Amino acid sequence: MIGSRLFPLATTFVIFILAYALCYAQFPNMLSTRVIGNLLTDNAFLGIAAVGMTFVILSGGIDLSIGSVIAFTGVFLAVTMGEGGVPPLFAILLVLAITTAFGALMGAMIHYLAMPPFIVTLAGMFFARGMAFLISTDSVPIRVELYDTLQDLYFRMPGGGRLSFVGMAMLAVVVAGIVIAHFTSFGRNVYAIGGNRQSAELMGVPIARTTILIYALSSFLAGLAGIAFSLYTSAGYSLAAVGVELDAIAAVVIGGTLLTGGSGYVAGTLLGILIMGLIQTYIVFDGTLSSWWTKIVIGLLLFSFIALQRGLVWLSARRRGAAAIPA
Amino acid sequence: MKNLKTLAGAVALSALMAGSAAAADMTVGFSQIGSESGWRAAETTLTKQQAEQRGIDLKFADAQQKQENQIKAIRSFIAQGVDAILLAPVVATGWDQVLEEAKDAEIPVVLLDRQVDSSDDLYLTAVGSDLEHEGEVAGDWLVKEVGDKDCNVVELQGTTGSSPAIKRKAGFEKAISGHDNVKIVRSQTGDFTRTKGKEVMESFLKAENGGQDICALYAHNDDMAVGAIQAIKEAGLKPGSDILVVSIDAVPDIFLAMENGEANATVELTPNMAGPAFDALEAYKSDGTEPPKFIQTESKLYTQSDNPKAIYEEKKNQGY
């Protein structure tokens, strides 16, 4: 059983190594600290959001609101810290509180109104994007000291690569995600709900609390991703991060998490992010391919991973069936 | 014998190429916004053509209108160790960090057709057109064309509040000021589109005695002029002679109209921003010549005497 659980993660890992080796064979510069630093920095906001998405998908749900929440966070920060004159740290705490409460509200609606997560978070997606536009339709630059300090905070790796603050923050979030998923009762509850809701309920898993916490966590991390994104571009823009939720879902699935829930690893999501970043880097290095190839390759990877997952589910069902007959 | 000939040919060819060796060694990354308009597609086509002609290895990255994709592309260019970077920025804000990284890696960055709000020591130069000057060129042409005759001009403005609309209007007004015989009698927005241009022109014609009192049309872009030409024809007048037509952009369709005598002049917003950019880069690389911080592209005037048919044929394959 454990073998088949680990299999998708192992596949992702092998694909990542193979893909990197292929890139390296063609462009030796791909294996430099610069590219590795870029992979972490450029995908930091996506990675942070995708960790939240991993918990949501592990529980068998989906969260379509995160791209909008990222945009809202950026615009909110830019306007409150700029025109509003709110102290940066306070603005950051305030926006994280708002996004977390927003996620908790969506989780409560999903649980108490027995609504599909797809519909509730779709509504959340429109709502958050609309709120961002209400605050400002322009791209608002962020010029505060805290941002300059954080942007200048990087670890220079040998070879000129930079391990930036947002890159390190993303790695920290991944580590925290791994700890929460595998070493807390909340993590166990998430897996239990995603595996089989009825039996989880019978086992005494607090479904309501866990569901609310899952969506609160996802929106909290989307808020954090929004901060990372605003650090990345030094601006808040209501049209930013359109479709990031779909990239996050793709990263989670490529990372080996079962879309139906109950099985997967946060570490796999990081690999999924890195694979997607690698494809983009390769296309820029090549310089002649259309950038839409990124989407095409991600689409193909998704297809193959869904097929792989189906195959594994079918195999384990057959094995269980075979084991049941002699008994 | 045949082999010898090929060899001789190859030697001659390589001797020829040696002249442009400095450029041939250059790898340039180009981060383009996307392909949202015909003009931008033409800019991409011409940049690729220019690079090919000069033997520059061009790495092209289309950002699909997203700033994060442009930042990623620039970072990848730096990691790859390109010799220079061309950037057509999608928004003005948020470039400080990545431009600093390029500067750290000693890779010169040239901005194409749009500006950024970063300090100007972070990039080598910016290549762009002066929108106000374009309007001035159009106005100067009209003033010269009508001479001392009285001329009532109707103006089709671009999208209200957009910088091309404001600046092209101001430039034209500057050119006709001091020439009291030329005056703008009506001015309204046609939103840069063909259909709006036609609609607004229809209302101008009705208001001005069926068009009898109009001497010339000034449109902020060619598309509106093309729509207006249709309206003038439908009103039973001859565009190009009864009503003079002058506009800006120089898209292929306006040359067809000029060929048919239905439009008189257009001012080019050149999609060849890369040519001057490569010139500046080549000079900078060979002997360290620092270009000015803004390189203004030529706002060239085209009239019916410039063989519009040939220009149409040349332009129609540029991806407009």
TrEMBL record, chain B:
<dbReference type="InterPro" id="IPR054837">
    <property type="entry name" value="YtfQ_transport"/>
</dbReference>
<dbReference type="InterPro" id="IPR025997">
    <property type="entry name" value="SBP_2_dom"/>
</dbReference>
<dbReference type="InterPro" id="IPR028082">
    <property type="entry name" value="Peripla_BP_I"/>
</dbReference>
<feature type="signal peptide">
    <location>
        <begin position="1"/>
        <end position="23"/>
    </location>
</feature>
<feature type="domain" description="Periplasmic binding protein">
    <location>
        <begin position="29"/>
        <end position="273"/>
    </location>
</feature>
<protein>
    <submittedName>
        <fullName>ABC transporter substrate-binding protein</fullName>
    </submittedName>
</protein>
<keyword id="KW-0732">Signal</keyword>
<dbReference type="Pfam" id="PF13407">
    <property type="entry name" value="Peripla_BP_4"/>
</dbReference>
<comment type="similarity">
    <text>Belongs to the bacterial solute-binding protein 2 family.</text>
</comment>
